[in-house]
Every structure is written in C-alpha cells, then in structure tokens.
Design brief:
single chain; alpha/beta; TIM Barrel; Immunoglobulin-like; 2 domains; nine-stranded mixed beta sheet; 11 helices; 22 strands; globular; disordered N terminus
Length: 535
C-alpha cells in the first residue's frame, strides 16, 4: 500500500529539496494521521539526561482560544485561577502552523504570534506552571498545496521541521526551572484507515520522519530540549507487534514517550451502538496493556499519557458518562504514576459548528455557556482534594489597540423553522483605536462576525458591518441590530458573535453562547418571541 521512501534532507535551507516521501497517489489524496512529538525544555545551561525529570507529577489540561487561534496571556488569565483550583499544573496549547509562518519559500514568520506565545510562557512561569506547546501543521502556510498531503509534498516535511526549529530557537530563553513543556503536534501524514491496513509500511514512513525528528533538528537546538514521542495507534493499540517494526527510529532518539487513553478501548466499537458505552471499570486493564507495549520495548524510557479524556455528547453518551470516564482515567494515571494531559478545559469552537446539541466532540469540562459539567467537580476532587485555592499572579495588561467588551444582547430563545427574527448585540470599544468601515487591505475593516456557527450562514448572515461613514471611538458602544433567518430544520442550535478586524483577526470578548430551539409552534401554546439573556 505504501511505497518505499528515500532519504530526506532536513532543515530550513533544504526546505524546497525534491527528495521527499514517495507515497502512492491514492495515499496522497487520503492521507491523514495524528502523530505527536513532545519536547521538554531543560533548565538553562543544563542538559537533563532522560528520566531525571518528574514526569509523574505533570497534570495538564488542553486549553483553546477559538478554533486554532493563538492563545494570548490575557485570554488565559481569565481562567487561570479556576484551572489552578481544579488541580492542574500545566497547560496544553495547540497552535496552527500558519499562525506563526505565513509562507514557506522563503519563510515568513509572524513576529506578533511569537510575542503572544512568549507572553503566555511568562504568565505560566510566574505561576509555577508548565506549558505544553502544540505545533499543528493545520492550517498550513502558503507553499503547502494541501493540508492532507504536506508530508508527501516536495519540501513539505523539511519546512515543518524548519518551523519547529525556528520556534524552539525563539523560546530557548524560557528554558529555566522546567517552566516550559512543549508538544509538537504533527498531524495529517497518514490516514488511520491505511495505518490499520498496513501498519508496517506506515511505521516505516514515520520512522524516517516524525519518529526520528530529534536527529533532524540542529544539534545546538536539540541539546537544549528533551524530546518525547507520542504514539496514538501503532504501538498504543498494538498494530505493530515487533520492536523492529516500531515507528521509532533505532537507536531511540527520544527521551520519553506518551500514549493515548481515549475511550477506543478493547471490545468497544466506535461509533457505539445507541445506549452502549465503554465501562470505566475496564479502563485500568486496557491502559495497563497499552503501557506494557512501551515498557517491553523501551523499559528505561519514561512514559506519560499525552492525551486522554471523554466527550459528553453524541454517540459516546452524556455528562454522567464523561464524569465517570474522566475520573477513571485520572485515577489510573495517579495510581500508576503517569503524568497526563486531559482533553480539555473548554470545547474547541469547531465542535459546535455542526450545531449538534453540545458538540459531537465536546471533551470540555465546561459547557458552551462556561458553566461546570459534573466532570469538573469530579476532576477537582481527584486533583485538589483539599479544595485549596493556589495564589495566582496576574500581570497588568496594557490596552490593546483593538479590543471589545460584550455588553448585552437580545436573542430569541425559540424560533420557528425558516422564520424571520431580529437579533441585537452591543459591544463596547475598549481599545485605543476607532472602529470604522475601512478597507480590507488596510486592516481597518471592522465588523461583527459569527463565531458559532463558525463563519457560515446557518442564520442567513455571518457578518454585520458599521454604517457608511460611522465611527465608534474608544469608550463608545455599538449596538448591531440585524435580521436572521432560522434554519429550516428543527433542532437545537448555538449562536455566538465576536468583533473581527477583517484580514487580521478576531479581537476582544465574544458574546456568551446562546442556545436557540428551532421548533414548530404547537396549537394552544403561547408564542415566545424574545428573551434578553443579559438585560
């Protein structure tokens, strides 16, 4: 199924070299695979030998700021006290490649994104927390033809390695007191289906690329970091059964490994038949089996659980199932001395773009309206049984040029399918620059944009502009009143809006998440027309 690969030159200078993976054309069209490399930053001036760091004490939670956006210190600071109270001592951050590098040939890096990253690292460091930094090749920068075939494109993988190395160079000054843990998320290489069909060939491809990435980083940069390899299928699920077929290069270039503990457990089909869910009582045996596969091949290399968690919706069950599953997973990790990363603090907004009742992949401990699910308290009892409130140090953030604060809105809670309705949303300009209907190219085109659903026209509109010639100065507020059309299909839908600087990015607070029931009116029932969530 997979063709043989050639030797691949690495490094930014060779990013356009045509020597690349030779995958079949079929594989190139469908390739998708999640591989995760983890890097642990060493103290400045030191090189930690493998196994000297206390991986067992790592208790991380995945944290997002909107679908793939760069997390800012200001955004994280809003939830940091609650995260510390929950018992977490590390944050996993997932960043898209094109947020930091807009094109690969020649490379163009985003200095403002790196400044935001350094601000987050400063915030966590001041609060004695570690940071997992996820390098995600999606969305890719210009020069990568497809987000699904970047590994097979000429220069694609070499460019990715170059981006990782450049970023590590940028954060080397934060390498003290083990303040930073960094994950390099390298996905979209091979599909799960094809890996399962031909795991040996898949492992060979990974072994020459992601499974050997520490040796492809400039030695002076690599020596400052401890690299870990995350395995989601090939070893974790036993798809390869001999160490000779391992996706990890020989000799082993990694300092630690981590496995996945999502509920794709033995004997459990996904998607699950209605009303059937994996039994949390079976988790310990299955996870011990997964760990044993690493232990038997690499007995001296530390092991973590890099991704674990359970969704609260869809075919996987509901909030009670999530609470029981998260509790079982964390209990196993604590009992066996494995550091872990739980998915996730809040749901990625991508999960709600489908307008499912609470997102088909909603792993968050918080609901869309930021209220706590049962799993929130269950996790807190395990990680912070004394219910202590650690001190949190928050910096004073300077005013942003473009900033916004949600004030209030008027949104109907119930609509009839296809009906016309009016929404009114008010935001205050809390930045230092005027809001105007400037040009797109100048970065001065300010509008209101739909966040849930993500930039689509489920409600008949996804952008609302200012009036021609209108200016909203700092300190003033703007009420956007506009018509929407309810979806034609009955169901439960979400609405969320946020200010956007077109061509630059979203800014300021988002509105709360509003749940709207689209249902046909029944005779004899009063018609509900409007409800002000924030009077």
């Amino acid at each position: 199924m997979f063709q043989t690969i050639r030797d691949i030159p690495f490094g930014r200078k060779l990013a356009a070299d045509p020597a690349v993976l030779e995958l079949s054309s079929k594989t190139r069209k469908t390739s998708r695979f999640l591989a995760l490399i983890a890097l642990l930053v060493c103290p400045a001036g030191a090189q930690n030998p493998p196994g000297t760091l206390t991986y067992a004490n790592i208790r991380s939670i995945a944290f997002f700021d909107d679908r793939g956006a760069v997390v800012t210190a200001k955004f994280l600071a809003k939830d940091l006290a609650a995260i510390r109270h929950e018992g977490f001592n590390a944050i996993y951050l997932n960043y898209g490649w094109n947020a930091f590098e807009s094109q690969i040939n020649p490379p163009v890096f985003n200095t403002s994104a790196y400044a935001e990253l350094k601000g987050v690292l400063d915030l966590l460091k001041k609060n004695g927390m570690k940071a997992f930094l996820g390098f995600n090749p999606n969305p890719p920068p210009r020069g990568i033809a497809s987000r699904y075939t970047w590994l097979s494109e000429p220069g694609g993988y070499a460019a990715f390695v170059g981006w990782v190395e450049h970023t590590l160079e940028q954060i080397q000054s934060w390498n003290d007191a083990d303040a930073v843990l960094v994950f390099v998320l390298t996905e979209n290489a091979l599909s799960y289906k094809e890996m399962a069909a031909d795991p040996q060939s898949a492992a060979q491809i990974i072994r020459r690329t992601l499974g050997n990435i520490p040796t492809q980083i400039t030695p002076s940069v690599r020596q400052a970091f401890q690299f870990g390899y995350h395995d989601s299928m090939l070893i974790t699920l036993g798809l390869v059964t001999k160490v000779a077929d391992s996706p990890i290069a020989t000799p082993n270039p990694f300092d630690f490994f981590d496995m996945v503990a999502y509920p794709v457990l033995a004997g459990f089909a996904f998607p699950a038949p209605p009303g059937t869910f994996p039994d949390p009582n079976t988790y310990a045996a299955e996870l011990a089996l997964r760990a044993s596969r690493f232990r038997s091949w690499y007995p001296s290399t530390p092991l973590m659980i890099g991704e674990m968690g359970y969704p609260s919706c869809g075919v996987m069950g509901g909030e009670p199932e999530q609470s029981a599953a998260d509790s079982a997973l964390i209990s196993f990790a604590l009992a066996k001395g494995y550091g872990f990363n739980l998915w996730a603090w809040r749901a990625n907004l991508m999960d709600f773009s489908l307008n499912q009742p609470c997102g088909v992949l909603n792993y968050g401990l918080l609901r869309p309206d930021a209220s706590e699910k049962p799993s929130y308290e269950a996790v807190r009892r395990l990680l912070n049984p004394s219910n202590s409130f650690p001190e949190v140090v928050l910096p004073t953030f300077p005013p942003e040029q473009y900033d916004a604060q949600f004030a209030n809105w008027s949104v109907p809670s119930t609509m009839s399918p296809g009906s016309k309705n009016t929404i009114a949303i008010t935001f205050a300009n809390t930045g230092t620059r005027d809001w105007q209907m400037g040009s797109y190219d100048s970065g001065l085109l300010i509008r209101l944009g739909s966040r849930i659903p993500w930039d689509d026209s489920t409600w008949g509109v996804h952008r609302v502009g200012l009036a021609a010639g209108e200016t909203i100065p700092p300190g003033a507020s703007k009420t956007f009143s506009f018509p929407v059309t309810a979806p034609s299909a009955a169901g439960t839908y979400y609405i969320q809006w946020r200010m956007v600087r077109e061509g630059v990015g979203w800014f300021g607070d988002a509105s709360p998440v509003k749940i709207v029931n689209v249902a046909r009116h029944r005779l004899g029932e009063p018609r509900r027309t409007r409800e002000n969530l924030h009077p």
